[in-house]
Amino acid sequence: MYKKLKVYIEMHEIFVSMNNFFQTMGVQGLAINSAVESFFLVPPPDILLIAMDLAKPEKALYYAFVCTLASIFGAAIGYFIGLLGGRPVFHFFFRNKQDKFDAVEKMYNDYGSFAVFFSAFTPIPYKVFTIASGILRMNFWKFIIASFFGRGGRFFLVSLVLMLFGETIKQYLEIVILAVTVVIVIFCVVIYKKRHSLIKRSDKNGNN
Predict the structure, then answer these.
(1) Which secondary structure element, helix H or strand E, spans residue 106, and what is its range?
(2) Is residue 148 part of a domain?
(3) pLDDT tens for each residue of 61-91
(4) Among 2-6, 142-146, 147-151, 204-208, whose mean pLDDT is lowest?
(5) Do the domain assignments include residue 83?
(6) Residue 7 resides in a domain
(7) Is 70 left (phi over 0), alpha (psi -120 to 50) or beta?
(8) Residue 22 maps to a domain
(9) Which pTM was predicted?
């Protein structure tokens, strides 16, 4: 228990140091943070994005745009890391946690590119999906499109809310994101199931 707590504290201190380093670089730091976070363990760019949005709300949408493009660039790197490195590189990055890969593979089998969108928009570790997408050889452009809407939706939602409501809404941001996530997930699942039922119906009619 003590060792786990010590590791957690050390990781927290490392993350704080990283975040401070990115912050000193301004917009460039936001872009680097967002890109690297898509395939490696660094602080989520939301922390820096929130701070910059509150400091200059008139530039909030610009910061969201930078964050989104950089994240997609990083996602492409993660995809090709998985594509070229295969399962060994996944186990190296995520400490041989086969259950993580199995969970990602199941989501792909169940929801296809929607799985990438979910991971890009929600607090699910996005980097796990970028690398796994390459390993599972998902269509690259479907991956990029799903990532763009997921990452863009998340970052623009954060920036837009902060631009409109400022500091007063900051403590409720996670609730806002969670509420929007639930609505989007329900919508996507309904659309996905309807699409599959239509495909099954057309297959039956074709066989008849």
Answers:
(1) helix 98-111
(2) yes
(3) 999 999 999 999 999 999 999 999 988 888 7
(4) 2-6
(5) yes
(6) no
(7) alpha
(8) no
(9) 0.80
